[in-house]
Amino acid sequence: MELNEEKLNELLGKVVTEMGAAANGPLVMLGDKLGLYKRLAQSGPMNSTELADETNTAERYVREWLSAQAASGYVTYDAESKSFSMTPEQAAVFGNPDSPVFMTGAFYAITSVYHDAPKMETAFQTGEGVAWGDHSTCLFCGTEKFFSPSYEANLISQWIPSLEGVEAKLKSGAKVADIGCGHAASTMIMAKAYPNSTFIGYDYHEKSIEYARLKAKEEGVTNASFEVSTAKTFPGENYDLIAFFDCLHDMGDPVGACAHVKQALKTDGTCMIVEPFAKDSLEENLNPVGRAFYAFSTTLCTPCSLNQEVGLALGAQAGEKRLREVAISGGFTHFRKATETPFNLILEARA
């Protein structure tokens, strides 16, 4: 077939852009780890020598790093003064860990995907899954680092208040389980905000639970504890609130998990399901957010589910309709979307 030169050039331009983004991923991590973004955001405009001096790094590397960041649009370059700076928007995304749109954590997780490419090649050929704990360790810190800013910004101020009657229970004293808690960013945020309530984080990944225990001890959080358990076997009953934060779709048997949660809740208890934002059809998700989540879903979420019993493999773009079916199949009779953000759906399920 004859090539359409205009369309070919358009595609090549897109691919070159993608090459630049992929090659800059490790540089984003370096900028975060070495404090380059943070210092530039706080002290700019600066040249490469000044930034290197203030971060105890080598000027020649910093000069090249700054050039790559400026070409990416991640920092701003002024040709007249030959200095670099960050706009408030650039600082919010790369230079301020307390920003609700701080995005560097995603690049740590992406790095793990490259490390684990051989495992995914085998998975594609065999149809077998890849356990969450079998991925590169940078995945676990990256996941925490990526999700934490959004949880910090929204969980206490918007998400919990959007649930029927839950905030009042947490303030007075409630029993809460955080299922699939990972490094426990969500558990810790809730425990600090509601000191009268008791929180238990469960995860089947032992090393994540070890990390969560250490973090709670270091931060002096005494109303949260952590145990190794799956979503279908975690102990206890009469919970006021049980939550899934960006993990229900990763589970092999999310219907079974919901059924166990329903049994463990009080009769007036609530299940909060936080999931990646998605519409109900593929064509509605063909956008930048859907693209990122489908990519992570291919290499992380789907293989994680396929590695477990049932292996329903919902994927990270399941959407509200499919998640409703899962919750109702698990025994819940009331299900609604409580609220949403550009990156998350917050769903409420009740008996």
Structure report:
With 351 residues, the protein is an alpha/beta fold. It has 14 helices and nine strands. It has helices spanning 5-33, 36-43, 48-55, 59-72, 88-95, 104-115, 117-126, 138-159, 166-172, 185-193, 206-218, 254-264, 288-306, 319-329; strands at 76-78, 83-85, 175-179, 198-203, 224-228, 239-245, 265-276, 334-340, 344-350. Strands 5-4-3-6-7-9-8 form a seven-stranded mixed sheet, sandwiched between helices. Strands 1-2 form a two-stranded antiparallel sheet. The radius of gyration is 22 Å and the shape is globular. 43% of the residues are buried. The model has no long low-confidence stretch (mean pLDDT 97).
**What order do the helices and strands follow?**
HHHHEEHHHHHEHEHEEHEHHEE
What count of helical segments does DSSP give?
A: 14
Q: Outline, from the CA principal axes?
A: globular
Relative helix content: 40-55%
Strand order of the biggest β-sheet: 5-4-3-6-7-9-8
* Number of E-type strands: 9
Multimerization status: single chain
Distance between the termini: 58 Å
Radius of gyration: 22 Å
> What is the typical, i.e. mean, pLDDT?
97
List low-confidence stretches.
Answer: none
